[in-house]
Automatic annotation (TrEMBL):
E.C. code: 1.4.3.16
Pathway terms, separated by semicolons: Cofactor biosynthesis; NAD(+) biosynthesis; iminoaspartate from L-aspartate (oxidase route): step 1/1
Full protein name: L-aspartate oxidase
InterPro entries, per the entry: FAD-dep_OxRdtase_2_FAD-bd (IPR003953), FAD/NAD-bd_sf (IPR036188), Fum_R/Succ_DH_flav-like_C_sf (IPR037099), Fum_Rdtase/Succ_DH_flav-like_C (IPR015939), NadB (IPR005288), Succ_DH/fumarate_Rdtase_cat_sf (IPR027477)
Chain intervals with Basic and acidic residues compositional bias: 440-449
UniProt domain FAD-dependent oxidoreductase 2 FAD-binding: residue ranges: 9-401
Primary role: Catalyzes the oxidation of L-aspartate to iminoaspartate, the first step in the de novo biosynthesis of NAD(+).
Names of required cofactors: FAD
Species whose genome carries this gene: Kocuria turfanensis
All copies of domain Fumarate reductase/succinate dehydrogenase flavoprotein-like C-terminal, residue ranges: 483-572
Superkingdom of this protein's organism: Bacteria
């Protein structure tokens, strides 16, 4: 193992959250190293089609029909009573500054006319007014990624930012106090230790938990798994958002919410619209409602996919001339989707498109305050891998890019203040030991930072009655991990529709899996998927109600007494036979203890 020179801040992930954090931290004079697991543009951000929600009143190009209060109300409504209200207000209040920063980095949002004309603001599901900015029609994420990568490359060239490509997070390095002091990373086939004053996890979600996902192959929950092994508190992992309309074909290409926002409708195999009976907003209902109704209708018609009908869509006619026909409008407004659909042999201007729900976004993650701080000193998290509380039980469409931009900037600001205020975080007494090994030590103290996130302050770590998910001893976990079988089990037990017996069966099945021991990218990913999958199953089994994206057919209504967020961490309780591996980087005994819900 080699040891590199000491970087000040290590940012893991190159989507919007990681890039904004790295650029903003470098701009504040911090030494920053940016890690990308793959190419800089192999992210969920680049796949984001629908746009970025923002309150643009008062900005050049913005429109005055929206307000902070209205955007907050819509976000809280979609979150189904489980949002952190303060975090939501921060998200919306900082949205104008986030858009301004993106424009300064070179993002070109679509405008109604030439330069200086108003931005085009679209409408999406559960939004009460049009507030969604797009770029390149349905290529918003690609344009944001392009601009931010260009800015990062410029910073790299000028020496303001170091970038490590094709470098995967393996684990976090902790000192004898449990503070994070760096990371173990896999660079090709070489294991390296990177030391740092602070580590920022911006590793995205965990769509690869499921066989049907709109996420890229890199979305294997790496940051969440590493944080759990370091003792971090997580929350809301039962809330997995399934995008209702992915192309029912290999690759699950996402057909954006914006398509329904502009008039597309969903039909069953007989050609009948079925969402009008399910929700007052019909096709514009929250994603969890639409996804469930699609699954139910598909099951009712023998597993055949439902159909997204765009054949009546045309652009509005202008003064004195007709709007373009459907084919021209779809190609102009949704060029990326148009190309993908036609590549599968469907002329969506003339025939409906078969669609299916697919795992799209993880509302839960590593618990943070509104400046990225986690419950572990020296560890920050931002973006999809973090749980700020802004999404609650169901993310409002197009709030995810906004979250990455807003909290990336706030995390960079916190880093600058925290590190300069605490010179004791200079490197000393650092042990070249992974967090997974460090957590095996029997320590009676609660390893949380002074002034932890508000959620952690409210809920001092204590074992809740019945709150431990005790998995079997390593010797009992004798079924080799197979990713396809694991994903199929997750889909069946913790997919769009869930129930208690199915979740219990899933927990037992995951209990029996033995993670691979090799040191390779695929093996590390598999271990991370198993850790996060077990945590998702534990959280979903514990929440005996239906709320937002978490729907249980055995308890199909929300229970007001269970509306609060549930916080979890990896348990320090020993396995039943007391076995504690002394050298293994990855403990087999994933156990999670619940911290009381708020």
């Amino acid at each position: 193992m080699s040891t590199t020179p000491f970087p000040r801040v290590l940012v893991v992930g190159s989507g919007i959250a990681g890039l904004i954090t790295a650029l903003a931290a470098a701009g504040r004079g911090l030494d920053v190293v940016l890690l990308s697991k793959d190419r800089l543009d192999e992210t969920n951000t680049v796949r984001a089609q629908g746009g970025i929600a923002a309150m643009t009143a008062g900005l050049p190009g913005g429109q005055a029909r929206d307000s902070v209060a209205l955007h907050v109300r819509d976000t809280l409504g979609a979150g189904a009573g489980t949002c952190d209200d303060d975090a939501v207000r921060v998200l919306v209040q900082d949205s104008a500054a986030a858009i301004t920063a993106l424009v300064q980095h070179g993002v070109a949002f679509d405008r109604a006319g030439g330069p200086g004309s108003p931005w085009v603001e679209g409408l999406e599901g559960a939004h009460s007014v049009p507030r969604i900015l797009h770029a390149g029609g349905d290529a918003t994420g690609r344009e944001i990624q392009r601009a931010l990568v260009a800015a990062a490359l410029d910073a790299e060239t000028s020496g303001r930012l170091d970038v490590l490509r094709h470098t995967m997070l393996v684990d976090l390095v902790t000192d004898h106090h449990g503070s994070v002091r760096g990371a173990l990373v896999l660079d090709g086939d070489r294991l390296r230790e990177l030391r740092a004053d602070a580590v920022v996890l911006a590793t995205g979600g965990a769509g690869q938990l499921y066989p049907h996902t709109t996420n890229p192959a890199v979305a294997t929950g790496d940051g969440i798994a590493a944080a759990l092994r370091a003792g971090a508190v997580v929350a809301d992992l039962e809330f997995v958002q399934f995008h209702p309309t992915a192309l029912a074909a290999p690759g699950c290409f996402l057909v954006s919410e914006a398509v329904r926002g502009e008039g597309a409708v969903l039909r069953d195999a007989t050609g009948r619209r079925f969402l009008e009976d399910a929700h007052p907003l019909a096709e514009l209902a929250p994603r969890d409602v639409v996804a469930r109704e699609i699954v139910r209708r598909s099951l009712a018609q023998g597993g055949r996919p439902v159909l997204l009908d765009c054949t009546a869509m045309t652009a509005p006619a202008g003064a004195g001339h007709a709007g373009p026909d459907t084919a021209e409008h779809l190609a102009r407004r949704f060029p990326t989707i148009d190309a993908a659909v036609r590549a599968h042999g469907v002329d969506w201007s003339r025939e409906p498109v078969p669609v299916t729900p697919a795992a799209h976004y993880l509302m839960g993650g590593i618990t943070t305050d509104d400046r990225g701080r986690t419950s572990v000193p020296g560890l920050y998290a931002v973006g999809e891998c973090a749980a700020t509380g802004v999404h609650g039980a169901n993310r409002l469409a197009s709030n995810s890019l906004l979250e990455g931009a807003v909290f990336g900037a706030r995390t960079a600001e916190a880093l600058a203040g925290d590190l300069r205020a605490d010179d004791t975080r200079r490197p000393h007494s650092t042990r070249s030991q992974s967090a997974a090994t460090a957590e095996l030590r029997a320590e009676g103290t609660d390893r949380t930072r002074p002034g932890p996130p508000r959620a952690v302050r409210r809920h001092p770590a204590r074992l809740a009655p019945g709150g431990v998910l005790a998995l079997p001893d390593p010797a009992e976990a004798d079924v080799p991990f197979d990713r396809q079988a694991f994903q199929a089990a997750m889909w069946a037990g913790a997919g769009v529709l869930r129930d208690g017996p199915g979740l219990e069966a899933l927990v037992r099945r995951l209990d029996a899996l033995r993670p691979p021991a090799a040191l390779s990218r695929s093996a590390v990913e598999d271990r991370n998927l198993l850790t996060v999958g077990r945590a998702v199953a534990a959280a979903a089994l514990h929440r005996t109600e239906s709320r937002g994206a978490h729907f249980r057919e055995d308890c199909p209504v929300p229970e007001p007494a269970r509306a609060g967020r549930a916080f979890w961490r990896r348990s320090r309780v020993a396995p039943r036979n007391g076995h504690r591996p002394a050298t293994s980087t990855y403990a087999h005994n994933d156990m999670f203890e619940r911290i009381s819900a708020c």
